[in-house]
Amino acid sequence: MSKARLTDFTGAEIRPGSVIAYPTRQGNRVRTSEAVVLETMSDKSTGRVVPMLKVRPTGRDSGFIARKTLKAQKVSAEHVVVIGETEGERA
Question: How much helix, strand and coil, in percent to the nearest 5, is found in the chain?
Answer without folding.
Answer: 5, 50, 45
